[in-house]
């Protein structure tokens, strides 16, 4: 009973992550009620995206210029590379304002159970950067999951003998979290990676 | 640190109902990763919407033709009008497959506390339909809220003497719901509107 153009838009909206038919219907009805201006606004934003967004040839993040803003920033330490899985991880780390190096976006993680996707990942590009760009230190900022750990292992093995120092993010109790409800693997790794507390009274 | 066209798209997405900055970011990154085809698909659906969707001049539902598919259906009872607040209510009622009349979409409800929006509502159009189109029966299918009840009261007063029979949807315990957790107003109205059970043994 819905006109075909509305049905079609709902169908396209359901392709967005986490959007079911009910939510897609709300989006479509919202646009219909907001009218021409709102629909045009979304159209224009999509068109600009198509026209202007490319992949940075160095870090493989999405950007409107290549090299991207971060890779062209001479104030950043280009010998310190943070390896992440996806563009949204760059956003998350930038928000901490505690990293002054550059990034390498792998565009995925190795899934040891499925054996797919690794060809699309930017691993050869990372190895090339380390070989030719004088990378001193690599920090893996990948999810502490089977996929993340496998990816760290795989790339680390390829980088053996490269001279770059490798590290990965600390795992442990999340800030504000509770020990009572932490899972045993998290708690175990938090214990192993316990941090020394500076004692004001000395010794 | 996000390229401006991505930021812009995220901003437009947050204007959709229930979409916060994090969800909008996921939508944008999803489109970026899916690539040109997916973005174009959404663009085209929006364009088709702009080109083809208008408001039905009879019921004020969105449609690609006017009168809309429902209003042009000669098999439906045009003297029986179901009054709803929004286009999505038409979809919900059509899904029940238990209504054979036509609709009138008010495009809103009267908010007695705010006193706004009533000018945009299609109330004069409903009164005109009743006066000129020989409407026999009106069913108000509005939310059982202050706004819904106020709207029913307001329109009913205007229709006094029109000869049309007026009713509203039954309120009561939702099918599959629990008496223990029903609020007192719902339970009270379910008691008052109790339905006679046909007794197989007669009397």
From TrEMBL, chains A, B:
InterPro entries hit by this protein = DNA_Rcmb_RecR (IPR000093), Rcmb_RecR (IPR023627), Rcmb_RecR_Znf (IPR015967), TOPRIM_dom (IPR006171), TOPRIM_RecR (IPR034137)
* An annotated GO BP: DNA recombination
Record carries keyword DNA damage = yes
- Is Transmembrane set as a keyword in this record? no
GO terms for MF: DNA binding; zinc ion binding
Signal peptide positions on this chain = none
The Toprim domain is annotated at 79-174
Q: Which keywords does UniProt give here? A: Coiled coil, DNA damage, DNA recombination, DNA repair, Metal-binding, Zinc, Zinc-finger
Per the record, the coiled-coil ranges are 32-59
Taxonomic superkingdom: Bacteria
Concerning HAMAP family, the annotation shows:
RecR (MF_00017)
Q: Which family does it belong to?
A: Belongs to the RecR family.
Give the protein name, as stated in the record.
Recombination protein RecR
Source organism of the structure: Candidatus Magasanikbacteria bacterium RIFCSPHIGHO2_01_FULL_50_8
């Amino acid at each position: 009973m819905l006109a075909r153009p509305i049905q079609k838009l709902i169908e396209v909206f359901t392709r967005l992550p986490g959007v079911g038919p009910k939510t897609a219907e709300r989006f479509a009805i919202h646009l219909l009620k907001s009218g021409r201006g709102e629909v045009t606004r979304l159209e224009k934003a999509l068109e600009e995206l198509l026209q202007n967004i490319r992949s940075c040839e160095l870090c493989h993040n999405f950007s409107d210029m290549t090299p991207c803003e971060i890779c062209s920033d001479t104030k950043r330490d280009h010998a310190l590379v943070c390896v992440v899985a996806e563009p949204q991880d760059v956003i998350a780390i930038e928000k901490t304002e505690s990293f002054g190096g550059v990034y390498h976006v792998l565009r995925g993680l190795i899934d040891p159970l499925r054996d797919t996707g690794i060809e699309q990942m930017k691993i050869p590009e990372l190895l090339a950067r380390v070989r030719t760009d004088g990378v001193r230190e690599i920090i893996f900022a990948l999810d502490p999951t089977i996929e993340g750990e496998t990816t760290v292992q795989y790339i680390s093995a390829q980088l053996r003998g490269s001279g770059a120092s490798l590290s990965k993010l600390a795992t442990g109790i999340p800030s504000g979290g509770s020990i009572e409800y932490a899972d045993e693997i998290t708690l175990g790794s938090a214990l192993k990676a316990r941090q020394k507390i500076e004692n004001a009274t000395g010794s």
